[in-house]
From TrEMBL, chains A, B:
<dbReference type="InterPro" id="IPR036653">
    <property type="entry name" value="CinA-like_C"/>
</dbReference>
<dbReference type="Pfam" id="PF02464">
    <property type="entry name" value="CinA"/>
</dbReference>
<dbReference type="Pfam" id="PF18146">
    <property type="entry name" value="CinA_KH"/>
</dbReference>
<keyword id="KW-0175">Coiled coil</keyword>
<dbReference type="InterPro" id="IPR041424">
    <property type="entry name" value="CinA_KH"/>
</dbReference>
<comment type="similarity">
    <text>Belongs to the CinA family.</text>
</comment>
<dbReference type="InterPro" id="IPR036425">
    <property type="entry name" value="MoaB/Mog-like_dom_sf"/>
</dbReference>
<dbReference type="InterPro" id="IPR008136">
    <property type="entry name" value="CinA_C"/>
</dbReference>
<dbReference type="InterPro" id="IPR008135">
    <property type="entry name" value="Competence-induced_CinA"/>
</dbReference>
<protein>
    <recommendedName>
        <fullName>Putative competence-damage inducible protein</fullName>
    </recommendedName>
</protein>
<dbReference type="Pfam" id="PF00994">
    <property type="entry name" value="MoCF_biosynth"/>
</dbReference>
<feature type="domain" description="MoaB/Mog">
    <location>
        <begin position="7"/>
        <end position="174"/>
    </location>
</feature>
<dbReference type="InterPro" id="IPR050101">
    <property type="entry name" value="CinA"/>
</dbReference>
<feature type="coiled-coil region">
    <location>
        <begin position="225"/>
        <end position="252"/>
    </location>
</feature>
<dbReference type="InterPro" id="IPR001453">
    <property type="entry name" value="MoaB/Mog_dom"/>
</dbReference>
Length: 415, 415
């Protein structure tokens, strides 16, 4: 078939009350656009039997695929299955696989499974049950009245897992999609969005296929190259050609592709070079350490962190010289460097990195919120220290400091 | 009239491509809920004449008020007016006020007004033109076929200004809104959604006003009580009554109301009791510390953390006895308790809390991913230690451990 028409139905009264934003719809739409599936409608409807049934009827008339999220939980106001059964007449049956999974789960956490939980195992006759790798309620695909109906939980984490692992591969088999759309993300750090756009302005404006879309996120910027072609190979070639031109202009800021993060990139560099690191954190309060530990196998490169949020603990936990603190204050180059070299000693790592500054909102030691010192102490005990002035609220300042540290480590390690 | 039924139509292909998230719908819905207007549907449709007309027709049939955002701009693919004219037959005329405003604007920036800009002054015959205090395109209200049609620009800033300054006051005059809707959120921790729903099932199923809606989020669950009444006081009374009944059943799990978080609740309890805390973190890698430091003024209750990700650093940074580790392993009650009492000493705090376990995906010391020990060491050096088995991927296990710690601290401190 040439074009696949799809629509999304999000179920949940909390959406209609404006208590949560419908991020699921945007995410699913983006995934489908990349696969060449055209999304023509989004609808949101509450946990109401009649309105659900009515919306499903309408959707079935006009779309080849209907994606339904939410209303599959164990509680009484989860009515998605019931409403669809009402319009389709399909029997609901219990999926034994899911029942087994639930019983194992409740046994594992030593809780008894309440009866209403069984509802989460309800699927339709002749439906395909979609494995939920991060939760209990499975997804369901059922072919009814020339339309493909895809049911997924409303919890974003579970929906995304089922969509990625089950639904998208299934769609790829089922529909032979004529035009392929391929995207590649180029990730840059250490250059601002406007600077990047400025350097590439001629390239971007004369460019139609692939398209070049700049995307700024906290402390870094990415370019999404999207090519349409008859097949993947052709699309990839188009992307390769434009990537070469981009690299000529701003290649020195490129750190990775697609879903690679700067954190992962730094992690890999440390691993390659057989280096270990430890952090001494004041205003960041362990946020840097936590980011590092997000990586599986962090133990290969990460020894630990001292979160020394109080001046006293800088002394007691890292034996930073209290005369140094008295002389220069905790928000100082001197304190940052002492923290970096001390945490190396205490945690027996090859590199040390430290954060000290003012998260705000109040100023500290007469220094304004956003003032942050970051120091790297390398394996030869040489210090690389910089002072930054970040803008934003408390959380933003802390996040920017952590992101900046990965940027500094990236350029330090790739030398 | 007793109930006003409304729905939202958001116009824009960028929404269907997932390039932007539909935050307008959530914001408008929240505003309307507070005014007692019931929103029954959200729809999103692209910049397509026929599909727009079709969606407008459907909306007009089922709603008293239809809010339409987007598609009012000057460009070719802004088709909202044209599609509505097609179904209503209403004449489009130029609003002189808007024309004057635009001419003044372009004069001010010394630019000549391009012809396509005049389109932004197009309104319907007999419609009410809504002043746009932050942009050019005005909003429009027109009464057609027993439905009130409200047109606003899609730019959130402009939509919000018009909604607040023009639409909401107009609705208040037009509909004597008899009913007010009030919501209260009850927040519980230490009980699962299905268990809560099970304990309250009679209450919930026999309950119409206020309604009781369970909402589960990571590691906790909330109940939203929503009452309709003649006035606020009456609504609050209805909510108070049902809250009492709920407390009889599950009051021991209630930790707070509305936007209060468990983290903030624990923070306040520590402050009240003049207690300070420090954490020793292995698998959580500083995530607990970072959560605490999110609270402004954390220094009043938080001394710091030792992120001891390696067995060696448990010894070097916290001088946990290495024979203890050799005998029991790091994933053990004994190690957890040693970490909790040692971090208290090193960081000179009144309480210590520790995390040790297996974040996964691989098992560790022959223990499966998700096995976590959390220990609290109180000001009398008494330990409260529990072993948990969490499910999910690496990040989920770490987040659940941190959330669980706040739960344990809550029950420990409220004694």
């Amino acid at each position: 078939m040439t074009e696949v028409k799809a629509e999304l139905v999000s179920v949940g009264t909390e959406l209609l009350l404006g208590q949560i934003v419908n991020t699921n719809a945007a995410w699913i739409s983006e995934q489908l656009a990349e696969k060449g599936v055209s999304v023509y409608y989004h609808s949101v409807v509450g946990d109401n039997f009649n309105r659900l049934a009515e919306v499903f009827l309408e959707a079935g008339k006009r779309s080849d695929i209907v994606f339904i999220t939410g209303g599959l939980g164990p509680t009484e106001d989860d009515l998605t299955r019931e409403a669809f059964q009402h319009i389709s007449g399909l029997h609901i049956e219990e999926d034994q696989g899911t029942i087994n999974k639930m019983e194992a789960f409740f046994a594992k956490i030593n809780r008894t499974m309440t009866p209403n939980n069984r509802k989460q195992a309800h699927v339709f006759q002749d439906s395909k049950v979609l494995h939920n790798s991060v939760g209990i309620a499975p997804g369901i695909i059922v072919d009814y009245n020339k339309t493909l109906w895809v049911f997924m939980p409303g919890v974003p984490r579970e929906m995304k897992a089922i969509m990625t692992e089950e639904v998208l591969p299934f769609l790829k088999e089922t529909f032979v999609l004529k035009t392929v759309i391929r995207s590649r993300m180029l990730r840059f750090i250490g250059i601002g969005e406007s600077q990047l756009e400025h350097n590439l302005r001629d390239l971007v404006s004369n460019q139609t296929n692939p398209t070049i879309a700049p995307l700024a996120s906290e402390g870094e910027v990415a370019l999404r190259l999207t090519a349409k072609a008859e097949n993947n190979q052709e699309a990839e070639q188009l992307i390769d050609q434009i990537e070469l031109k981009i690299k000529k202009e701003v290649g020195q800021y490129l750190y990775g592709y697609d879903n690679v993060t700067i954190e992962k990139t730094v992690f890999d560099l440390l691993k390659q070079k057989h280096l270990t690191i430890a952090s001494a954190e004041s205003l960041t309060g362990g946020a840097f350490a936590s980011k590092v530990v997000e990586q599986g196998g962090a133990s290969a490169i990460f020894n630990g962190a001292a979160v020394v949020y109080q001046p006293s603990s800088k002394v007691s936990a890292l034996s930073v010289n209290d005369e140094l603190i008295a002389a220069h204050g905790t928000v100082s180059k001197e304190c940052a460097e002492a923290m970096a070299s001390q945490v190396k000693k205490v945690y027996q790592s090859k590199l040390g990195i430290s954060f000290t500054g003012v998260a705000g909102p109040e100023e500290l030691e007469k220094q304004s919120a956003g003032t942050v010192y970051i120091s790297i102490c390398d394996h030869n005990n040489k210090h690389y220290t910089e002072r930054f002035q970040f803008n934003g609220d408390r959380q933003t300042i802390r996040n920017r400091a952590v992101k900046k540290a990965f940027e500094l480590l990236f350029y330090h390690l790739k030398k």
